[in-house]
Amino acid sequence: MFLxxxxxSVDTKGRxxxxxxxxxxxxxxxxxxxxAEGCLQIYPREEWGREQDSQRLSSLSPAEERRLARMMxxxxxxxxxxxxxxxxxxxxxxxxxxxxxxxxxxxVNNLIEIWNDEDWRRIGDATAEEYxxxxxxxxxxxxxxxx
Amino acid sequence: MFLxxxxxSVDTKGRxxxxxxxxxxxxxxxxxxxxAEGCLQIYPREEWGREQDSQRLSSLSPAEERRLARMMxxxxxxxxxxxxxxxxxxxxxxxxxxxxxxxxxxxVNNLIEIWNDEDWRRIGDATAEEYxxxxxxxxxxxxxxxx
DNA sequence: CACAAAGTGGGGAAAAGTGGGGAAAATGAC
DNA sequence: GTCATTTTCCCCACTTTTCCCCACTTTGTG
Lengths: 147, 147
Description:
2 copies of one chain form a homodimer. By secondary structure, chain A is an alpha+beta fold. In chain A, 44% of the residues lie in helices and 23% in strands. In chain A, a hairpin with a 5-residue loop joins strand 3 (31-34) and strand 4 (40-43). Chain A binds chain B through residues 1-5, 36-37, 106-109, 113, 123-124, 126, 128, 130-132, 134-138, 141-142, 145, and chain B through 31, 34-38, 51-52, 54-55, 57-58, 63, 66-78, 90, 92, 96. Chain B binds a DNA duplex through loops.
């Protein structure tokens, strides 16, 4: 399980240190891909496989499925760590995610997301009011289900 | 079951001792998250899973679900105790909860809440009149339901 | 009162994160 | 094919943060 948000710097060579807590849970063979809302996503190997499975089962037309496969696999790379625990973000990935000198690394349960500074401040900076609202919703749903 | 309220100090390193009575009931794998009304919440492992289930079963759009997951998991951390039974509150968590040098640790049935000094004095100090009013309400609802 | 358990505080070793130099490899030009 | 340029990657050095350990105080208990 990946939890927490970390702000790390991206140096001029495009290197980004992955938090040690995350790295421990990332066996070799993990994949970094382009994700929704303009973020990058790191999938542990088995999660990546699971993702492909659900796409196969999603009853797309063959043409759509081919297009999806090209998009997903073509834009992804294997994660390779150097001795300091950093990965190199390709120029393509950096420009896709709008990342320059700072990146936010976010644990989202079974995968990791990487955001640029501006977008994460907008998306990730939830106030106490928002958390309150979420808990209200969850509590209501649970009550509804238990009846 | 977590019961009682404790006032503990938070040192300059952000460390907070969790009451021994609570610690005994917290297996490793417990999670500390941002909670409603600006408090922090510690979920024992299985409670955390239950919370996640409630959210998964909710009928949100994929985009809303992604946002919810980012907020919940990105704002949470695993609870790690040192040899003295303390956890380190991250800078983000401290600022979210407005905690500086004092924290109130409150047992709330199946989870633990952590409050800053000022907020807890305001909301935690209920008078006899308030307890009376709440018990009245509960009793009335129960009678209504049983008829 | 003596003892044990719980909470508090700080020093210092170890780990994590950051930045840059330079060799090896890849790319491209002539 | 050869040379020059760029890119990649390995290594080293430095700073900051984390966390482990020890010690003291306070609280509770027999």
